[in-house]
Amino acid sequence: MFSKLTRPQSLAVLCRGVHASLSSATSVATKKTVQGPLSSDYIFEREAKYGAHNYHPLPVALEKGKGVYVWDVEGRKYFDFLSAYSAVNQGHCHPKIVSALKAQSEKLTLTSRAFYNDVLGEYEEFVTKMFNYNKVLPMNTGVEAGETACKLARKWAYVVKGIPKYKAKIIFAAGNFWGRTMSAISSSTDPSSYDGFGPFMPGFEVIPYNDLPALEVFGIILLCLLGKYSLQSGSSYHVLKMRHFLWHGVNVFPFIADYDAWKVCLRLRDNGLLAKPTHGDIIRLAPPLVIKEDEIRECIEIIHKTILSF
Ligand SMILES: Cc1ncc(COP(=O)(O)O)c(C=O)c1O
What we know:
By secondary structure, this protein is α/β, with parallel strands linked by helices. Helices cover about 40% and strands about 10% of the residues. Strands 1-2-3-6 form a four-stranded mixed sheet. A two-stranded parallel sheet has the order 4-5. The longest helix has 19 residues, at about 10-30. Pyridoxal-5'-phosphate binds near residues 85 and 143. One of its GO terms (cellular component) is cytoplasm.
């Protein structure tokens, strides 16, 4: 796979890109400061000028959020059907979370791992007891967790299983996605993730998804969807099932002749619901898991109406 993926990489191209953005940034920086509320168009343009083009956001500029709702800078209200990739499953600006955050940052903002503090162990004890694990290593991002899983799998292979040093192989299923670090893209079969970034991580092998006979050596990465444990109590089983279903997403495209997820998401936005198009023909629907039954019903109406409008 990797010989196929490897492409000569021109540093000169990257440098030209850097110089181009620096000079355009300088010319924009001389313009006068914008007064009053920012428009969506201004926000899109500013990000395009000063930010690296490593992402392609839906054109909506958000300013505030509460529970399952977000508002853009022009005051339009939307159901948030991505919930920061489920990082805000508790809903935007949850008062308990905001107040804990504020209280801690006012008392002791940050410590390094060079010292102990009085709360890390409390969290470690809580989370390991809740999920019945011996130990936990907290990470800031999902991809760091994947990186750590790779390191653990390799060390376990050498120390416990007696694999000759640096000969371990980690097997990934084709079609995986676990982030965009060098390791993550080295296990990817999606050219939009890996193309242009080689050479890739050695010792990674990709086999077809769901092909047990193809497995000869094991490296297991488990991604735990902690979000589903943040459901509020008092909800009916039916609503829990609906939330779970929504978290996993719905493939609406068998019903639409023109399979363009981007266009559908633009129209969902116009109808008051923000979702994430991915890979051209898939839409990820992940509302905060605090969404209530009547809100789910309203959202289903929006999705239904949008799909039928194509
Ligand atoms: C399925 C999946 N796994 C892992 C990641 C990486 O998570 P993070 O962005 O927190 O590193 C993402 C991010 O989009 C993801 O969608």
